[in-house]
Amino acid sequence: MKIVRLAAATLLGGFALTTLSAQALEYSLPSAGSRLIGENQEYVVPNDGRALEAIAAEVQLGLTNVMEANPGVDPYLPKPGSTLVIPHQLILPDAPHEGIVINVAEMRLYYYPKGQKVVEVLPIGIGQLGKDTPENWVTKIQSKRPNPTWTPTAKVHAEYAARGEYLPAVVPAGKDNPMGLFAMYIGNLYAIHGTNANFGIGLRVSHGCVRLRNDDIEYLFKKVPVGTRVQFVNQPVKSTVEPDGKRYLEVHEPLSRTEDEFNSTASAPLPMTPALTRFIAHKDTDSRIVKQVLEQRTGMPVLTNPGNQASDI
Fold first, then answer.
1. Average pLDDT, rounded, for the chain
2. Catalytic site residues?
3. What share of the chain is helix, strand, coil (3-state, %, to 5)?
4. CB 235 within 8 A of CB 105
5. What 8-state DSSP symbol labels residue 29?
6. What's the rounded Cα separation, in Å, for the pair 239 and 275?
7. pLDDT averaged over consecutive 10-residue blocks of the chain (313 residues)?
8. I need a surface site. Which of 164, 227, 242, 254 has the fewest CB within 10 A?
9. Contact 26, 19 (CB under 8 A)
10. What gap in Å lies between CA 219 and CA 123, rounded to an integer?
11. What residues have CB less than 8 Å from 302, skipping those under 6 apart?
């Protein structure tokens, strides 16, 4: 259970994770009218020389998830003894609670097992700039294949050749295959699959497919049946008005449109949908808090009407 391995873990939120499955974070679905799940936690960085990617994998997050919640952290060598916020509290995407929902903006996959009142959440890697993963698309799992082969396109062959690397016409199955050991196909061009790299979950690294850590794709592969609905959404801003009147806003950095994901200092514009405009304009919303949330983009839900509850952002 990954949650009990958090060093000096301190609960920060009020909505608990119910259980952790072997690989996925599993949350009980909230009551009717609610979209807020989970709790944030704290993690004390051990003095073992691990990069942030290894810590992210331990707490079942992507690298970007941890970096958003901890601005300024060194992704290569986080400071031993420092405390990281682990963003395990989430607002569910605005999409049906059915099958798989992939929010490319936050690089998370949500799986709603049929007949169960839970949602399982897994971090993902998505397509590089110019090789984008779909952002608004409803499809289904068309087939599944263990030990997949990979047939690179002519464009991919050219990219590798430009680096002095040459690929075979078909990359055989095995540990060196970029698709990993399991693949679920969702169309002629896309798949949800594993990886042959330890780095890249929570980043734009693939040729357009959805990439998971190997343990995670194996877990999902065994659970998700062929025919399962799959919906892609691009929701960097999520909001919820809870049944008790509390109003939460969760903001992620929108998908980068530049090549330099780590070092770009320019913030991309946020989509101001009619629903978000109404949320911000509501008389109970604290405009000072909203301004900070929109600027800081920590990827964590923040209470925007703290008059309902003692709160400090």
1. 85
2. 193, 209
3. 20, 25, 55
4. yes
5. P
6. 9
7. 33 41 83 97 96 95 96 96 98 97 95 97 78 78 94 77 80 85 89 85 73 94 97 96 97 72 65 92 95 97 82 39
8. 164
9. yes
10. 13
11. 248, 249, 250, 289, 292, 293, 313
Cα-based angle 2, 70, 87 (whole degrees, multiple of 5)? 40
User: What is the strand order of the sheet 210-211 is part of?
Assistant: 143-146, 182-185, 191-193, 210-211
Q: DSSP labels for 50-99?
A: --HHHHHHHTT--HHHHHHHSTT--SSSPPTT-EEEE---EEPPSS-SSE
277, HSE (Cβ side, Cα atoms, 13 Å): 4
Cα-based distances in Å from 137 to 225, 229, 232? 19, 11, 5
Cβ density class 202-230: b for 16+ within 10 Å, e for less? bbbbbbebbbbbbebbbbbbeebeeebeb
Name the H helices within the chain. Answer: 52-58, 63-69, 154-162, 214-223, 274-281, 287-296
**Residue 174, both tokens:** 């095995």
Say what the pLDDT of residue 33 is: 95
DSSP state of 163: T
Task: Name the pTM for this structure.
Answer: 0.87
The answer to whether 66 and 10 are in contact (CB under 8 A) is: no
